[in-house]
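Quick question, first post here. What does this chain look like in 3D?
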Amino acid sequence: MLLLDHSGSPQDRSQPMDKKKIVILTGAGISAESGLKTFRDAQGLWEGHDVMEVASPQGFARNPQLVLEFYNQRRRQLQKVAPNAGHRALVRLEGHAQVQIVTQNVDNLHERAGSTQVIHLHGELLKARSTVDEKYVVPWQRDLVLGDLDPNGHQLRPHIVWFGERVPLMDLAQGITQGADRLIIVGTSMQVYPAANLIHCVSPGTPIHFIDPRPQPRASDFPGIDLIPQTAVRALPPLVDRILEGL
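> Answer (accepted):
Ran it through. Tokens below.
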């Protein structure tokens, strides 16, 4: 089984192969229920900023101090919240099945709850990387400021996949999703690409549970989908109970 080391690189670690493989796709909704603000509001602004100001290479080039402070605020906020019942339900599921979480979230709430196999498609808030060498990735808890450099003297930046940048772990996520015996989608409307394509990777006939309090029309496009119009905190604990009864 592929896991990630601290730098985001896959490493092989085996688990019993007789367990059912359940893949979870998560998004901002599950973190919002812990009190973590979602970046983007209904007007497409992130905390009052145009998304391209704070989440693009061009925005960082124009005003690196603004971008660094934006993510510093997000990092401070993350340290004030805790995992919720939805996160904890997935940990409980991992005790009985081969669970892999593919998240669009940059927080570490899944890990803090106890999940051990989490792939962050869009990067991680508690890591920083070199602006020149993208393989240089380090843990980062404090504020990131101008003058924080890699060993070769290059400025560090948030380890976040910005708009216009490739999603390095997308191929890995597709491979994991293709092997799912069951798929759970929670906290995301599956409107952000390329992550939204992952629902098409499962084999025909694979059970899909789609948890969304305000499901988009496309959520019902898949035959036999179990559409659950509730929040993660309300829906995940009973869904996990139901799945465990059938294992």
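The domain at 10-36+83-122+167-246 is CATH 3.40.50.1220 (Rossmann fold).
The first strand starts at residue 2 and ends at 4.
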